[in-house]
């Protein structure tokens, strides 16, 4: 018990949801001091100085279940069983199609029973999303786990422009029902802007919308009509969200991509020069 207490003393809970029979927590390690390799310890020091922390998803079940992305299980304790969650021949076919269309795994294991489940530790970011008889469309590959009361499926683009130019392909992951899901985000929650549209329009120059309500229409439009419009505005195609519902944006996501590809100096250039290098 002393060792367990010391472990939890080194843990912060970033976010959580507790329903009694199902509890999900996003935890982070306050420090990583276990390395005996000086070179690795130096890297860990700079990682922590940059504000990066090791995170993990912990799920506590009480006669309930959780759907998990394959390979994400790290360890578990308690009376918990695993179901491949295939759903017969028809279910197998649907899941194989879903895998091809959305880049999500074919089979999402369903863990049922009572106990604790820890998923793989990572320097990624995780966000908790709760649904109340609703549906959301999420970016490809960011589904991580979900309460077993939710259904994880496929949504097709309803607009030709969205399928051709939206950056998400023709199909995305759809999560429906009542319950809690956890998504793997490219940025922390503090860098996510949540819009609740009320019969409004939101236009985005880039591919950094993480999720939207199923009720929100998604399409792609030109920022200006014709060549003259593009030359005047300096922009091209805009992701367009219309209607009533939620849209979550990660405005800083493209910045990290630019730094990773070209270094910090790429951000010093004017936007037009960054988009149109010599």
Automatic annotation (TrEMBL):
Superkingdom, taxonomy of origin: Archaea
SUPFAM superfamilies per the UniProt record, alphabetical: TRAP-like (SSF51219)
Alphabetical list of Pfam families matching this protein: AIM24 (PF01987)
InterPro entries: AIM24, AIM24_sf, Trp_RNA-bd_attenuator-like_dom
PANTHER family: ALTERED INHERITANCE OF MITOCHONDRIA PROTEIN 24, MITOCHONDRIAL
Name of the protein in its database record: AIM24 family protein
Species annotation: Methanolobus vulcani
